Each structure stands twice: as C-alpha cells, then as structure tokens.
Amino acid sequence: MPPTYPTVPQGAKLPVWLSACLASPPPRVLPLANDAASAVLVPVIHRPAGASLLLVRKAAHLKKHAGQVGFPGGKVDDGDKTAEAAALREAYEEVGLPPDLVQIVGQLDDERTYVTDFHIRPVVGYIANPPRDFRIDQGELTGVLEIGLQELVDERPASWVEFSLLGQVWRAPRYEFTEGRVVWGATARMLRNLQMRLRGAV
C-alpha cells in the first residue's frame, strides 16, 4: 500500500500545526565557520485552495545561483540584528512582502552551499493575508512560483544525486513538480527537511 501522509490543515490551525512540526526535534544549528552568514524566508502563503510555498527564480545573469529556484533571502548585513530580521528584509526587497504580514512559526535545519560557501538559516513564516501581487526585484529575479504545501507533503523526490566533497559522499534530492517547477541544491535539501517534518518523519 502507498504511504498515507498527513493532511495539511487550513486557516487558523495551520500556523499552530507548522510550529509544532518545526519545534520537535529542534532544528539543527551549524557553526558559522568561514562561510558567509545568510538567511532565507520560507514563506507559507494562505490560499483558498490550500496553503502554498512561495519561491523565486534567480535571474540568469547573476554570478552565483543564476537561474536557480530558491527562497527569497541573502546575506546577513551588519544592520540585521538576527537571521530572522535578514530573512524578512530580503523578502521585502526581493518580492515586496511586508514584514508585518509575516508570522514567524519556526525554522528549518541550517544548510550550507558547498560550492559558494554560504551558511543558510531558513526561517519559516506564515502569511495569512498575502498581497494580491508580488513586487519582483527585476535586477535579481525573473519571477516567482508556488508549490502547494500538500503537494510537497505527498511528493517524492524525482531523483537523488550523489557527489563527493571534502572526502565524503553526499546524497541530495532533486524535485520535479509539474509545470517545469524543478528544485535542486540547497533549496531542495530545505524542502526535504520541511517535507519530513510535516510528515512527522524526522
């Protein structure tokens, strides 16, 4: 029999459920080391048909992560008091999401980009009343896309990629959702962590 996964709640029950899923076990915290400190916002958007995740597609001309799908985010600046503040600031700069619309519900395991040396803290926020349209930073992005939260819970990675780095063999997921929504790299690892937490399988 195929596995049965939880049904994602809607309305006021959703942020409570998300908080519980993200709190136990506590998210993994990685030492900063020599990596560049960065943060992303993992926006969970209320939709009448069911909540969805908001992701961005990076512009092709960027020196790093060109053309990739990811969450809004970037480096932690000197003026950012916390990674959470950095994630909210970046989300406002990249997609015009006002910080006061975001209810922080927790965070995912810290991640690293193994080629570009970023230390990433993924901050999860629930947006009960999202703006009708997102204001895209045309200099950095080509657009936004959404993945249904239930769609993520039910989805299996399309493939697993193994690679060797620093004397270790790493295994990373790659997701291929419908309509050409392909996610790989650090963002796919974050999706996998969120997916397993929502399934209660961490």
Features:
11 strands; 3-stranded antiparallel beta sheet; 22% helix; 202 residues; single chain; 4 helices; alpha+beta
Q: Roughly how many Å is the radius of gyration?
A: 16 Å
Assigned CATH class of the domain at 13-153: Alpha Beta
CATH topology of the domain at 13-153: Nucleoside Triphosphate Pyrophosphohydrolase
- In the CATH hierarchy, the architecture of the domain at 13-153 is Alpha-Beta Complex
Provide structural commentary.
This protein is of the alpha+beta class and 202 residues long. The protein has a domain at 13-153: Nucleoside Triphosphate Pyrophosphohydrolase, CATH 3.90.79. The chain has four helices and eleven strands; from the N terminus they run H-E-E-E-E-H-E-E-E-E-H-E-E-E-H. It has helices at 13-23, 83-95, 149-154, 185-199; strands at residues 36-45, 52-58, 69-70, 73-75, 103-107, 111-113, 118-127, 141-148, 159-165, 168-177, 181-183. Strands 1, 2, 3, 4, 5, 6, 7 and 8 form an eight-stranded mixed beta sheet that branches. Strands 9-10-11 form a three-stranded antiparallel beta sheet. A hairpin with a 3-residue loop joins strand 10 (168-177) and strand 11 (181-183).
